[in-house]
TrEMBL record, chain A:
<keyword id="KW-0547">Nucleotide-binding</keyword>
<feature type="domain" description="ABC transporter">
    <location>
        <begin position="77"/>
        <end position="273"/>
    </location>
</feature>
<protein>
    <submittedName>
        <fullName>ABC transporter</fullName>
    </submittedName>
</protein>
<dbReference type="InterPro" id="IPR027417">
    <property type="entry name" value="P-loop_NTPase"/>
</dbReference>
<dbReference type="InterPro" id="IPR003593">
    <property type="entry name" value="AAA+_ATPase"/>
</dbReference>
<keyword id="KW-0067">ATP-binding</keyword>
<dbReference type="GO" id="GO:0016887">
    <property type="term" value="F:ATP hydrolysis activity"/>
</dbReference>
<dbReference type="GO" id="GO:0005524">
    <property type="term" value="F:ATP binding"/>
</dbReference>
<dbReference type="InterPro" id="IPR003439">
    <property type="entry name" value="ABC_transporter-like_ATP-bd"/>
</dbReference>
From TrEMBL, chain B:
<keyword id="KW-1133">Transmembrane helix</keyword>
<feature type="transmembrane region" description="Helical">
    <location>
        <begin position="44"/>
        <end position="64"/>
    </location>
</feature>
<feature type="transmembrane region" description="Helical">
    <location>
        <begin position="114"/>
        <end position="137"/>
    </location>
</feature>
<keyword id="KW-0472">Membrane</keyword>
<feature type="transmembrane region" description="Helical">
    <location>
        <begin position="195"/>
        <end position="216"/>
    </location>
</feature>
<feature type="transmembrane region" description="Helical">
    <location>
        <begin position="85"/>
        <end position="108"/>
    </location>
</feature>
<feature type="transmembrane region" description="Helical">
    <location>
        <begin position="21"/>
        <end position="38"/>
    </location>
</feature>
<keyword id="KW-0812">Transmembrane</keyword>
<protein>
    <recommendedName>
        <fullName>ABC-2 type transport system permease protein</fullName>
    </recommendedName>
</protein>
Length: 273, 228
């Protein structure tokens, strides 16, 4: 499907709304990536270019009604000197990141910068060539894709993951459904994961990461396939978790949200923590 | 134990919802049985057991590969690797028993003058060995096609190699030939003992290897220090 006309119209609308060229470029690139990944029509995913541009502007400049941030708590995640090489190429070079309770860290960088690799190392799913990760508390992880069982329904996923967290069946289902409602989603009772759309499956993925309220949440571009409304809901949920004292690490290339996070780790250039 | 049972229940649900696969799994041993029914009596029994072995190993191989995506998340959610692998083994063994029961009834109805207890034993051992064999292949060869090719090779060798040769004892389903000979030809107890020992040793060894492979793959990495 050719998305160019829609992307060009979005570029024009963003400019008309006074959005700078850098940010316009990022927003358009992000939309293009979503469209490429989902294969869906831009009108279906984002709506009309003008509507989406206005939503972006609103999300940037709208009044911030969130409660004031509390003082960050104790260190929940400390990654030190993480180095990873693939076939002689250094992907991560002595990367440090410290995230405290009540903080959101954004891991940003170009494609191939090692964002997902870094998160998988933090989750303990991949070994680094050097460095250590200390996690104080329980871990929740939302992968970029996968992480669900094709032939199980959402409720069955809640029971399965919940049992690992020590939740009973009814409690796991209740908790899962409550978390899903935060993303404006009511999981269908019998629909198997394979029949869910890409965006809805990511909602399931995100809810599963939150089951049992882990202290540290590692989210690898969890908004793939989300429509605009869900995307905004997602960030509101992330802020809510932060305000509840959770440490949240989000891999993102949506730079328009960086002013609303506490720590930025840029893997494309200078390392910062 | 409850975590193991939850994993087993989820794995069983997943398997039972693949209806087309289930139908093929159910029919594959029948094709093997019918292909040799006109030959020597023992051959059809031996072949139905090999058909069961092939069907169950393949199911286990694909179930193991399909689980790879969610297992790291389950591990992070509080499951030990033993919960995951034992739960899956339990589910697949249950499917194996459900799958082999109609074939035992078929033999019971269709064959005369055979030792039915020994045939039940062949089928039980076939279920016991096939499941960890398929799961081990999925653990060692993460790409399904590679695992399937190895499976084809092993079961193919099991069919074409001279069963009297010592090399065939290295194959996981050699016991079925020994036990089938005992069951059909009413030979002495040596066949029963050899078959039983072979099946048990392979079943236990493969199960231990599957558990070990899962423990290594889903281990907590040394760089990660969790202080809960």
């Amino acid at each position: 499907m050719n998305h160019e006309p829609w992307l060009a119209a979005l570029t024009g609308e963003l400019r008309r709304h006074g959005v700078g060229p850098d940010l316009t470029g990022h927003v358009v690139a992000e939309a293009a990536t979503h469209l490429l990944d989902s294969g869906e029509s831009p009108l279906r995913v984002f709506g009309a270019p003008e509507t989406y541009a206005r939503a972006v502007v609103d999300s940037l400049g709208g009044p911030d009604v969130r409660p004031p941030r509390r003082q960050p708590g104790p260190v929940r995640l400390a990654a030190r000197g993480i180095t990873k090489r693939y076939r002689g190429r250094t992907v991560l070079d002595r990367v440090d990141l410290t995230v405290r309770a009540g903080q959101i860290a954004a891991v940003v960088g170009a494609n191939g910068a090692g964002k997902s690799t870094f998160l998988r190392i933090c989750a303990g799913l991949l070994s680094p060539d050097a460095g250590t990760v200390e996690v104080h508390g329980t871990l929740g992880y939302c992968p970029q894709d996968g992480g669900t069982a094709e032939f199980l329904s959402a409720d069955e996923h809640f029971v399965l993951i919940g049992a690992g967290r020590g939740l009973g069946r009814a409690e796991a289902r209740r908790t899962g459904r409550a978390e899903a409602s935060g993303l404006a989603w009511t999981p269908p009772r019998r629909t198997q994961a394979r029949h869910l759309s890409g965006g809805t499956r990511q909602k399931l993925n995100l809810v599963l990461a939150r089951l049992g309220e882990p202290d540290v949440l590692l989210l690898d571009e969890p908004y793939q396939g989300f429509d605009r409304g869900t995307y905004l809901d997602f960030w509101h949920e992330v802020w809510r978790w932060r305000d509840a004292g959770k440490a949240v690490v989000v891999v993102t290339h949506l730079l328009n949200q960086l002013d609303r996070v506490d720590v930025v780790l840029d893997l494309s250039g200078e390392r910062a923590a | 134990m409850s975590r193991t049972l939850v994993v087993a229940e989820a794995a069983l649900r997943e398997l039972l919802r693949r209806r087309t696969v289930l139908v093929i799994l159910l029919l594959m041993p029948l094709a093997f049985y019918l292909s040799r029914r006109g030959d020597h009596l023992g051959q059809s029994i031996r072949f139905v057991c090999l058909g069961l072995a092939w069907a169950l190993s393949t199911a286990a191989l694909f179930a193991g590969s399909a689980a790879r995506g969610i297992e790291p998340r389950l591990r992070l959610s509080g499951y030990g690797s033993r919960h995951l692998v034992l739960g899956r083994l339990l589910a697949l063994w249950t499917v194996g028993v459900l799958l082999s029961t109609p074939y035992f009834l078929l033999v019971l109805a269709d064959q005369r003058d055979v030792r039915y207890g020994a045939i039940a034993l062949i089928m039980a051992l076939t279920v016991f060995v096939s499941v960890p064999f398929g799961l081990l292949l999925s653990a060692v060869l993460p790409r399904e096609l590679e695992g399937t090719l190895v499976l084809l090779t092993v079961v193919g060798l099991q069919m074409v190699m001279n069963p009297a040769g010592s090399a065939t004892r290295a194959l996981p389903f050699w016991f079925s030939r020994e036990l089938a000979t005992y069951a059909v030809d009413h030979t002495d107890g040596g066949y029963l003992t050899r078959g039983l020992i072979h099946g048990l040793v392979f079943g236990v060894a493969l199960t231990v290897l599957v558990v070990a492979a899962a423990a290594v793959r889903l281990r907590q990495r040394r760089h990660l220090r969790l202080a809960i």
